[in-house]
UniProtKB/TrEMBL annotation:
<protein>
    <submittedName>
        <fullName>Acetylornithine aminotransferase</fullName>
    </submittedName>
</protein>
<dbReference type="Pfam" id="PF00202">
    <property type="entry name" value="Aminotran_3"/>
</dbReference>
<dbReference type="InterPro" id="IPR049704">
    <property type="entry name" value="Aminotrans_3_PPA_site"/>
</dbReference>
<keyword id="KW-0808">Transferase</keyword>
<dbReference type="InterPro" id="IPR015424">
    <property type="entry name" value="PyrdxlP-dep_Trfase"/>
</dbReference>
<keyword id="KW-0032">Aminotransferase</keyword>
<comment type="similarity">
    <text>Belongs to the class-III pyridoxal-phosphate-dependent aminotransferase family.</text>
</comment>
<dbReference type="InterPro" id="IPR050103">
    <property type="entry name" value="Class-III_PLP-dep_AT"/>
</dbReference>
<dbReference type="GO" id="GO:0042802">
    <property type="term" value="F:identical protein binding"/>
</dbReference>
<dbReference type="InterPro" id="IPR015421">
    <property type="entry name" value="PyrdxlP-dep_Trfase_major"/>
</dbReference>
<keyword id="KW-0663">Pyridoxal phosphate</keyword>
<dbReference type="InterPro" id="IPR005814">
    <property type="entry name" value="Aminotrans_3"/>
</dbReference>
<dbReference type="GO" id="GO:0008483">
    <property type="term" value="F:transaminase activity"/>
</dbReference>
<dbReference type="InterPro" id="IPR015422">
    <property type="entry name" value="PyrdxlP-dep_Trfase_small"/>
</dbReference>
<dbReference type="GO" id="GO:0030170">
    <property type="term" value="F:pyridoxal phosphate binding"/>
</dbReference>
Length: 380
């Protein structure tokens, strides 16, 4: 049997990680500004994280959701306090796509409606309704193209209100910082206006915080920069620092019913141990504040570089979620960064570098990256 070949790969075998560095099987160290696609929140192989997962695995790795799991209750209490939503309810699953599927399902249960409004260039996952809410026809199979979703420009409040006024919208789902869409930020005016319009027309507001949440923006959630309080919040990626996990934070306006939602693996003992360890480190090492401070520093350095490096046309983002627009395709630059400068970054579209380092990223690492980026520009 061979692997189903759907991933264009760098010819590098990463075998070890510590903090914001990874190493390949030849012993080469790389500075990691990709974080496994924003998954690594507290740093690779943090000792507290390793200790807590090992401890839990030696006790019990898994049992079903048919019994009490006190780790789930501890996580709900800790997460509520950490993010400021202690009056919300928590449903635990396995991934971001699954989080969005369940959020959209809850919205439809509550409203009795089936239409969804999503933003142009949105990415919400690759499963049934999540992929239909994703603005990329190349990954929407015919079986998923069920005409549930209308795509609208981010920040065009009039367009969203026009559709909401039709009275058939189940939910509006937005990333307050678009990831795959190229680090495009929702404005405060748009977010507040959309929240008010959702309330007026009886639709549910979902904030997809899968990539931009969990401290990455310099607040626990990116929407907290915008002064809104969504009905449903979806999280994954950074919640488990690499352990597969997702969750939906659910407003008190939603009343659960037995059997309404379900999962086999979601919220298992090992996953909860991982998530609790992540919160321990985020709190003890003040990583949300660090994401803000280190991110502001890195963006300032990038904007300074923009004044001399004309191939940079824009720098934008919040915290440690940064987009660098280029006037050339990013491929050659990323190849040089990886193979010559030994530095991983992400990308978006054909010409945007996307920076998503672990939240323990430092100002000295930012300086190091700027030096490597300068060399890469000089060599391509």
């Amino acid at each position: 049997m061979t692997l189903f070949d759907v991933y264009p790969l760098f010819d590098i075998n990463i075998v070890k990680g510590r903090g914001c560095s990874v190493w390949d099987d030849k012993g080469q160290e790389y500075l990691d500004l990709y974080g496994g696609h924003a998954v690594i929140s507290i740093g690779h192989c943090h000792p507290h994280y390793v200790e807590k997962l090992t401890e839990q695995l030696n006790a019990l790795g898994f049992y079903s959701n048919s019994v009490v799991n006190t780790l789930q209750r501890q996580l709900a209490e800790r997460l509520g306090k950490a993010c400021g939503y202690d009056d919300y309810q928590l449903f635990l699953i396995n991934s971001g796509a699954e989080a969005n599927e369940n959020a959209l399902k809850l919205a439809s249960f509550k409203t009795g409606r089936t239409r969804v409004l999503s933003a142009s260039k949105a990415f919400h996952g690759r499963t049934s309704l999540a992929v239909e809410a994703t603005d990329n026809p190349k990954i929407i199979a015919p079986i998923n193209a069920n005409n549930h979703v209308t795509y609208l420009p981010l920040n065009d409040l009039d367009a969203w209100e026009h559709e909401l006024a039709k009275g058939d919208v189940c939910a509006c789902i937005i990333e307050c910082i678009q990831g795959v869409g190229g680090i495009k930020l929702a404005t405060e005016e748009f977010a507040k206006g959309l929240q008010a319009a959702c309330k007026k027309y009886g639709a549910v507001l979902i904030c997809d915080e899968i990539q931009c949440g969990y401290g990455r923006s310099g607040k626990f959630f990116a929407h907290q920069w915008l002064g809104i309080r969504p009905d449903l919040i979806t999280v994954a990626k950074g919640i488990g620092n690499g352990f597969p996990m997702g969750a939906v934070l659910i407003s008190p306006d939603f009343k659960p019913e037995y059997g309404q939602l379900g999962t086999t693996f979601g919220g298992n003992h090992l996953a909860c141990a991982a998530a609790l360890a992540v919160l321990d480190v985020i709190e003890s090492e003040h990583l949300v504040d660090n994401a803000h401070e280190a991110g502001e520093y890195l963006m300032a350095k990038l904007k300074e570089l923009q004044t001399t490096e004309k191939r940079i046309t824009d720098v934008r983002g919040r915290g440690l979620m940064i987009g660098i627009d280029l006037d050339i395709p990013h491929k050659a630059l990323r190849q040089n960064l990886v193979y010559t400068q030994h530095c991983f970054t992400g990308c978006a579209s054909t010409n945007i570098l996307r920076l998503l380092p672990p939240l323990c990223f430092t100002k000295s690492m930012a300086d190091d990256f700027i030096g490597r980026l300068k060399k890469a520009f000089a060599e391509i």
